[in-house]
Amino acid sequence: MLNQKSPRLILVVIVIALLLLSPIVVLFFPIAVVETLYFHRENIVLLTPKINFLLILIAILMIIFGLVILAFKRSVITYILTILLLIGSLGSVYFSTLSYTAIQKTQIITKEYHTTTIYKWEDIQKVIYEYEVGTVGTYYFITDNNKEFFIKENGQFGLDEKRAIYKSANENGVNFIEREKTN
To answer: What DSSP element (H or E) covers 41?
Structure first.
């Protein structure tokens, strides 16, 4: 009996391991999922929205909270609560895999959960690339019906991606304006 490890100790060790590994999972899991599930040869840039990272963080916190509850008290109510937290965590992971933005050679796709919006380059009136020296810029897309949406640059935008966006806009007759941001 003295040589057996207590369930509380095992659960606390798992919680500590999850706390140590969670930053890596939160940073890389959403990017890996989007790059794997939504890869397409025509993609110029494939972006992962910030909400995906937040949803993974919430999922991990729900698991940690459920394990902490079980570490301190194990009863029917805590088991039910932990199962509900696990189900919520799985739902959060599922929703974190649904959103992405893809700039392609022929279109721009923005998917948020179960809503997909596709903007063909022919339907875009102009693209404004606004930047500040030393920081990342923002692409503003204005459609023919004056609907405007924007995409902020991140580390995935290199010089090749900027050139490809410019080239796709020019090939489709889209007015491309590049300007420095004024405050």
So the answer is: none
Sign of CA dihedral 158, 160, 165, 170: positive
Residues 27/57, Cβ–Cβ less than 8 Å: no
First to last CA, the chain: 70
Contact present, 89 and 59 (Cβ < 8 Å):
yes
CATH code given to domain 105-180: 2.30.29.30
- Rounded to two decimals, what is the model's pTM? 0.82
> pLDDT tens digits for 86-123?
999 999 999 999 999 888 888 888 889 888 888 888 88
DSSP, res 48: -
- Domain ranges for the chain, please list them: 7-96, 105-180
